[in-house]
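Progress report, Aim 2. The chain analyzed during this reporting quarter is listed below.
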Amino acid sequence: MLLIPMADRLDWRKPPIAALLIILVNVCVYFGVQTKDERYQAEALRFYLNSSLPDIEFPAYAAFLDSRSEQAAAASYQAYSVQKPAMAVLVLHHDNGFKARIQSGLVPAGDDRAAGWKRDRAQFEHLMARQFTPVYSFVAAEHRPLTFVTHMFLHGSADHLLGNMVMLFLVAFLVERMLGPLRFALYYLISGVAATTLFWAVHPDDQSLCLGASGAIAGVMAMYVVLLGMRRINFFFFAFVYFDYIRGRAIYLLPLWLANEAWQLYSAGGTTNYLAHIGGFLSGALLAAAHRRDRAQASSAIVTAAERDEAERELQSAIAKAHQLVAQMRMAEARSAFARLVEQRPDDRHLLQSHYNLCKLEPGDDQFHHSALRIMALKQDDAATDELILRTYREYMKLVEPGTRLPRRIATALAMRFARRGLVADAEAALLPLLRRKSDHPGVPPALLALVLACDKRADHERAERHARLLAAFYPDSDAARDAQRMRGKTPAAATHS
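Predicted structure tokens for the chain:
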């Protein structure tokens, strides 16, 4: 059974730098170094089979197995040495017990074959030592410290490499974004070491080569679902001949993965190290749980693409229901519905406009004022927003009671917007009430300067002069007054008394 989480799209605006470097190292190691091993091994085996070693070591190894009360294995090996001699060489070569027998002197010194055997054995070991993979793979019976790390950058075939790197690529985007590249790399290595450590603890005398990144990747997969916790994600599953996408809580994948690996461990056999996968899952889950406990707020800030899509679907459904209420003439309910939508999307001018249109049916209500001010406070700088703001402003000023004052922040922003677009009369209407009150709001001088420039641009120099005098009179020390002086070639004092 295959279970792959598919909670987020690949966002190349924030690529997983650490994961991509890990993938690059794995690819370079395999194609740059490991692919030479097959040739080196073939040359070593060819030398072995053409030397004096088979006649001496094959029978000696069968006798060695028999001495360990492994008569069935000894009989099988004798047949194996005839049918598949190259594999027979590898079997005895990787048996640490027989290696010790060889090192102690397999052929007695007085034997006529001793000198030739030592010479051929030394040459064979030299040829085999050129291989990279056996040196840096993990062997539980030897458990050299370096190989606890190096084994996870080795792979047995191109297919093995491809499968592991694709899986790492799929889950690393979100995990690295939540952990950061340095922590991600550290947790990746810890998971790989923990995976191998569990295998070593259970099988300390195992002599097989353990290699591959799957233990570390299992840790990353566990981090993925633990960090997302109870959030709902999509995931792909394949069981027997059936496959599909289903949706569920992220954390539910962890026990399913562990159960699947345990079942595979006791039923599938083969060369896959399912025990290491379990070690990786457990270590990754513990690391992610500790990180989540310490940084719960940062983890919850990550919003997956699936969650964004679900939120968008819910929003569109709510919008459709709000419009349906309008069509049914249930205006009060529709206004409340759009008010809730505007809280979710405060910068969506279509929602703001719909809410405003409903609120203006009762211009004496506070909601009408709030809805109009929301539109007039929009920050977007485009023609459609300009048109909406201008229309709303003019309509609002007609419907509200005389003397109603706009907030200073909004009034100055409107004056700036209108002046920059040449709407001088509207800019004056928004700004002059503040001038009458001699407002000290910092937005007033820049808005007055924009009004001066708008009048000059329209060749209405008399009007521009009038506003320049106001700027010089009320805000003589402002940057706007100095800019007006520089652009119009007059000092503030001269403008005041002219």
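Confidence is low (pLDDT under 50) at residues 491-498. Strands lie at 2-5, 232-239, 242-249. These observations will guide the mutagenesis work planned for the next reporting period.
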